[in-house]
């Protein structure tokens, strides 16, 4: 007869609670498990909400445990259900719908709620918090209707909300009571660097402001501050903090202070009732960061499974975050005090900052900004209370730009087995080591599939790779070698070399000859091979439309409602009255819903029906602006010396010349250029793949900029005196990128991978090589044609793509 299993009820379907259940399952805990969640979704990653807000991920992308996981593990899940009371006498939990479920043990993991400032007007329409998917949905909806937003709170959540709303097109001001952003994690130096970077990305700030009232009638219309000043806003996000959700515990007679009081084994004042996560209070501390919650979960899981475990004695708080593409880290103490010895370095050019705090020569805290490669090592040193030595100093701080020898890589050998490597998913070093030693896994992707490490923000990938290196030793490099996708073990360079050596001509031929695991390939490798073949043989390669992404096949950007955006070319952002009239006439005739001025100084015609696309192209009679392709998108310009009183160079003329010369040519990824007539940088060259800035002596060229999800300031590449030299250098840079870039790799990533000095050596220090690169791109340019014209003249393709067959 089977042994009777105890009934375990988890109240709260979030990361802390489900993380504990995952540990119980791994330990073989014999429980019948029931989970209650107030939200209508399975377990998802709240850390990734900002990605949902900015549009780079959906709810499905951030689900950690889908519906099938609960079923596969025999877990009963009740979503959209709130537990209102725990009856100790009858050992039952009671829900808001009247459901009664018996228990032997209960874990309360109800998390926290957004703290809404108790000021007049905080209950008005248009005021939300930022804690869950419904808050994201409210912000996405608001961005479609309203233009001015205020985010109250300069902590992590507030800054993520602000950047997300900026990306959605809103005018956003962060209102913060303190003078420094993220003052609980960062010191003044790091905070000011973060603020400057966010301001560059379009976020505004009102620092040292105390909100005393939200004005407006039914809907919020603005904020009033204690100093009498005001701020207009038709949407307000409250991100001033969180408060533990203790309602269930309080109503059930469980001891509560700020949070639910627990002991070192996470037991509450009620027998067999436990609590973990943001709702729990341990030794007077409530933790709002992920790592401590998973540490609690591991102790509780072992306790509930009867395994030996050390008690939970609290956590040394560390924070490793990526905010709008900027990496920040802090651990332990981070604010300077008289008793501290401070070791610091700040690089204004690279926008990096590093600080270590010592107390009696013991490492007690650290702050990193921009470059966080030493975060795991510093976290370990702070946790261990390590004594600073010359060896540690050299390892962590490096030898400086004038010193000899490279900085040591971060060692993972001394990490404790239970130390969390992946804070997003609570994966420990031991879990990763076990995946390697017990299952034979050898790659990061295999570790991700098995443990969940790196599947969220990806910030822990370097440490995962170091653990693989530590466990596998010399065999790691070969084991770590990964192909361009799961269909092959061949890298980009190996594929290109094989195409050349074997004279391969088509995608199918490449896959067949080089032994693809999947005969037809996949959506990653097919477009990549098609690009490599076209780049290498521009005159003989027949472009394979079936290997291109949908937008490239259709010659327009598909929108979420199934209509398309048409973007005609405007060289250097300049157009004519005649072309504007064509655009207006066509927009009216084909019921274009929106004509939008883009950041690249063009006009988007949004909402064109698929069947109307060929007629719109024909009647516009303008070149395609390639808004959909992996090619030159725009050349942004200022008015330059033709019109501006500060202009020193003809940026309009040069921008149009460059755009006409390089349009239609395929690149590994989309490509943007800007040309400024003077160093005032009105065309924003610093965030473009190639940025060109005019000065009295000629031009300065910058490369590798990016203003997208992972912003990067372009590197200064060279200074040039003549227009002819400028074109030659641009040609060489573009062709070298075309020939060495991985498919879908932006120049911002390419420059960092290749190294600026290496690119300069290949192009600037070798005139013959530069001219050869320029000649190869010129030859490739002779083979390109306008895709709209080509489609209009190809009746069979036009019919197949745009004339729907109706039965």
From TrEMBL:
Pfam families reported in the protein's UniProt record: Fer2_BFD, NIR_SIR, NIR_SIR_ferr, Pyr_redox_2, Rubredoxin_C
Span of domain NADH-rubredoxin oxidoreductase C-terminal: 318-385
Domain FAD/NAD(P)-binding: start-end pairs: 7-283
UniProt-listed InterPro entries: BFD-like_2Fe2S-bd_dom, BFD-like_2Fe2S-bd_dom_sf, FAD/NAD-bd_sf, FAD/NAD-binding_dom, FAD/NAD-linked_Rdtase_dimer_sf, NasD-like, NiRdtase/SiRdtase_haem-b_fer, Nit/Sulf_reduc_fer-like_dom_sf
Cofactor(s) it depends on: FAD; siroheme; [2Fe-2S] cluster; [4Fe-4S] cluster
Domain (Nitrite/sulphite reductase 4Fe-4S): residue spans on this chain: 629-763
Gene3D superfamilies cross-referenced by the UniProt entry: 3.30.390.30, BFD-like [2Fe-2S]-binding domain (1.10.10.1100), FAD/NAD(P)-binding domain (3.50.50.60), Sulfite Reductase Hemoprotein, domain 1 (3.30.413.10), Sulfite Reductase Hemoprotein,Domain 2 (3.90.480.10)
Coiled-coil residues: none
Keyword terms of this UniProt record: 2Fe-2S, 4Fe-4S, FAD, Flavoprotein, Heme, Iron, Iron-sulfur, Metal-binding, Nitrate assimilation, Oxidoreductase
SUPFAM superfamilies: FAD/NAD(P)-binding domain (SSF51905), Nitrite and sulphite reductase 4Fe-4S domain-like (SSF56014), Nitrite/Sulfite reductase N-terminal domain-like (SSF55124)
Domain BFD-like [2Fe-2S]-binding: 420-469, 484-533
Domain Nitrite/Sulfite reductase ferredoxin-like span(s) in chain numbering: 559-621
Pathway stated in the Swiss-Prot or TrEMBL entry: Nitrogen metabolism; nitrate reduction (assimilation)
Family assignment from sequence similarity: Belongs to the nitrite and sulfite reductase 4Fe-4S domain family.
This protein's name: Nitrite reductase large subunit
Species annotation: Paenibacillus odorifer
């Amino acid at each position: 007869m089977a042994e009777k299993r105890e009934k375990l009820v988890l109240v709260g379907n979030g990361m802390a609670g489900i993380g504990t259940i995952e540990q119980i399952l791994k330990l073989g805990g014999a429980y019948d498990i029931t989970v209650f969640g107030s939200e209508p979704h399975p377990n998802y990653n709240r850390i990734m909400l900002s990605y949902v807000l900015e549009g780079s991920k959906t709810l499905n992308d951030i689900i950690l445990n889908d519906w099938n996981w609960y079923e596969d593990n025999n877990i009963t899940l009740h979503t959209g259900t709130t537990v209102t009371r725990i009856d100790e006498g009858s050992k039952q939990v009671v829900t808001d719908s009247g459901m009664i479920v018996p228990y032997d043990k209960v874990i309360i993991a109800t998390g926290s709620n957004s703290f809404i400032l108790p000021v007049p007007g905080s209950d008005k329409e248009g005021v939300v918090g930022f804690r869950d998917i419904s808050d994201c949905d409210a912000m996405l909806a608001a961005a479609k209707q309203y233009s001015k937003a205020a985010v109250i709170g300069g902590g992590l959540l507030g800054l993520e909300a602000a950047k997300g709303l900026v990306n959605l097109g809103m005018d956003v001001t962060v209102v913060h009571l303190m003078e420094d952003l993220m003052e609980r994690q960062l010191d003044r130096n790091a905070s000011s660097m973060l603020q400057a970077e966010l301001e560059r990305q379009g976020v505004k700030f009102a620092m040292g402001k105390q909100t005393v009232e939200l004005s407006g009638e039914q809907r919020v219309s603005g904020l009033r501050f204690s100093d009498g000043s005001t701020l207009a806003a038709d949407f307000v996000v409250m991100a001033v903090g969180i408060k533990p959700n203790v309602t269930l515990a309080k109503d059930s007679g469980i001891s509560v202070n700020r949070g639910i009081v627990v002991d070192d084994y996470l037991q509450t004042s009620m027998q067999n009732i436990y609590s973990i996560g943001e709702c729990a209070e341990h030794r007077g501390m409530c933790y709002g960061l992920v790592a401590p919650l998973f540490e609690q979960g591991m102790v509780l899981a072992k306790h509930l499974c009867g395994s030996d475990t050390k008690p939970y004695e609290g956590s040394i708080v560390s924070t490793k975050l990526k905010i709008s593409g900027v990496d920040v880290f802090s651990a332990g103490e981070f604010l300077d005090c008289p008793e501290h010895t401070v070791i610091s370095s700040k690089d204004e050019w690279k926008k990096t900052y590093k600080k270590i705090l010592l107390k009696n020569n013991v490492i007690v805290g650290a702050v990193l900004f921009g470059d966080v490669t030493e975060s795991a090592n510093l976290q370990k040193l702070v946790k261990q209370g390590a004594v600073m030595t010359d060896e540690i100093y050299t390892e962590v701080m490096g030898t400086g730009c004038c010193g000899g020898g490279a900085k040591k890589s971060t060692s993972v050998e001394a990490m404790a087995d239970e130390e969390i490597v992946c804070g997003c998913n609570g994966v420990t070093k031991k879990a990763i080591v076990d995946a390697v030693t017990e299952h034979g896994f050898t790659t990061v992707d295999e570790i991700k599939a098995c443990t969940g490490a790196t599947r969220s923000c990806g910030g822990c990938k370097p440490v995962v790779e170091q653990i693989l290196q530590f466990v596998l030793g010399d065999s790691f490099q070969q084991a770590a070698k990964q192909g361009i996708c799961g269909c092959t073990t061949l890298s980009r360079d190996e594929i290109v070399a094989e195409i050349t050596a074997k004279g391969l001509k088509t995608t199918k031929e490449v896959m067949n000859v080089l032994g693809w695991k999947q005969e037809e390939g996949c959506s990653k490798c097919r477009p990549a091979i098609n690009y490599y073949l076209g780049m290498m043989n521009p005159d003989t390669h027949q472009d394979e439309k079936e290997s291109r992404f949908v937008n490239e096949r259709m010659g327009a950007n598909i929108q979420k409602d199934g209509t398309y955006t048409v973007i005609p070319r405007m060289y250097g952002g300049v157009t004519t009255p005649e072309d504007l009239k064509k655009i207006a006439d066509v927009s009216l005739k084909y019921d274009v819903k929106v004509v939008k001025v883009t950041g690249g100084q063009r006009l988007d015609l949004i909402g064109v029906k698929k069947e109307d696309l060929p007629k719109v192209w024909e009647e516009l009679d303008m070149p395609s602006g390639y808004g959909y392709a992996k090619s030159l998108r725009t050349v942004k310009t200022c008015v330059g010396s033709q019109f501006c009183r500060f202009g020193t160079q003809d940026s309009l003329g040069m921008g149009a010349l460059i755009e006409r010369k390089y349009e239609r040519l395929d690149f590994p990824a989309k490509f943007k250029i800007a040309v400024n007539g003077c160093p005032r940088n009105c065309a924003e060259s610093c965030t473009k793949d190639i940025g060109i800035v005019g000065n009295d002596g000629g031009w300065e060229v910058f490369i590798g900029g990016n203003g997208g999800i992972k912003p990067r300031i372009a590197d200064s590449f060279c200074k040039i005196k003549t227009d002819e030299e400028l074109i030659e250098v641009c040609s060489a840079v573009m062709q070298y990128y075309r020939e060495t870039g991985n498919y879908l790799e932006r120049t911002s990533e390419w420059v960092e991978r290749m190294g600026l000095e290496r690119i300069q050596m290949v192009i600037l220090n070798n005139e013959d090589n530069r001219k050869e690169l320029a000649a190869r791109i010129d030859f490739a340019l002779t083979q390109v044609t306008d895709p709209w014209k080509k489609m209009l003249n190809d009746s069979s393709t036009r019919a197949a793509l745009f004339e729907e067959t109706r039965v």
